[in-house]
Write a structure and sequence with these properties.
The structure is a homodimer of 190-residue chains. Helix content of chain A is 43%, strand content 19%. With 190 residues, chain A is of the alpha/beta class. In chain A, the strands form two sheets. Chain A has a seven-stranded parallel beta sheet, with helices on both faces. The longest helix of chain A is centred in the first third of the chain and has 15 residues, at 54-68. Chain A is globular.
Chain lengths: 190, 190
């Protein structure tokens, strides 16, 4: 590897619901579109939509088909380009396998959480590590009320929570992905 | 004024469609939720959803009622808090009037565009201006294929386009708002 290689994953299982029960969430159309467009803008290699059910994957494949080959591809070619980076995949294990096959290295897994842990890192630190281009990174986001605790804790690094001027932090996953990609892969505007 | 005061506006008329015709777009649920949550996280005073039709405003008011007073307020109080910053309003003129009434000053209007203009400014410059707290700012975003050219050009400042490592820039308006708020009002993580 000589150039930065970043992958994004959106996990639909195992995640918590509001009552801290382990559930599988549904794939939403907006998560498909917004996150693929942000991923494409920031040069992410692949955006993995991780869902264990073939029926859900099939549904999303049909929506994607409209934008990739149907009328949508003609009407909005930019969206076609963004969607071409999406991979529908059944598990986190398969995602790691796929990235290892593509890059020749096991990816470092990065998650985010509202709390801090012993392996919490800052954005500046991770931006420098990524740009060194020595290892592939998988930025892993949970849906629902967040990914299962043991997955969170097994990550190589956990990113600091995003704060504005207040202590309110309830960004949508779509907004959080956009901001994190901008901090890690965006130009140095500051 | 002694503290930074920033307002966000999402314009549904007058904006272009794909064929560069002037149209009124519909308010979408996701724009309501995602942008109000980002606005609340970054300490934005009010988020103005600008739409000329009373029928559209009424529809959104009903959805908001569910989250403010209905079951949604109990189920998800964080969302209630975000939504309390939303104002439905009929025009850009009324928005400016409202901000002037609240702050005692006419707001500076900031837009974004993929092209550069004589009044294009960088994020660092604007972040410093905002934090000086001398004037209120309205960050104005267009829906559809962007706001009418004359509105764009009459803004006090136009923000530089957001770039990642490529020349592809087709972020959703929800992602663009999140990134711009983070750059202008977020902590100095860099």
């Amino acid at each position: 590897m000589t150039k930065p290689m970043v992958f994004v994953g959106l996990l639909h299982y195992p995640v918590y619901n509001k009552h801290m029960e382990i559930v599988t969430t549904s794939i939403t159309n907006l998560d498909v579109h917004d996150i693929s467009r942000s991923s494409r803008t920031y040069g992410v290699e692949n955006y993995y939509i991780i869902h264990p059910l073939e029926s859900q994957q099939k549904l999303i494949r049909e929506v994607m088909g409209y934008w990739k080959e149907g009328y949508g591809a003609v009407y909005n070619p930019d969206r076609k380009e963004a969607i071409s980076r999406i991979k529908l995949i059944e598990s986190l294990e398969k995602t790691i396998e796929d990235i290892t096959k593509i890059t020749g290295k096991t990816p470092k897994i990065i998650t985010t959480d509202a709390r801090t842990y012993p392996n919490t890192v800052g954005y500046k630190y991770l931006k420098e590590k990524i740009s060194a281009g020595e290892e592939p990174y998988l930025l892993l986001f949970g849906t629902g009320w967040g990914m299962r605790q043991d997955l969170m804790e097994s990550a190589d690094h956990i990113l600091e929570p995003i704060y504005g001027p207040s202590d309110y932090n309830h960004l949508s996953v779509r907004s959080a992905v956009a901001i994190i990609l901008d901090r890690l892969l965006g130009e140095s505007w500051y």
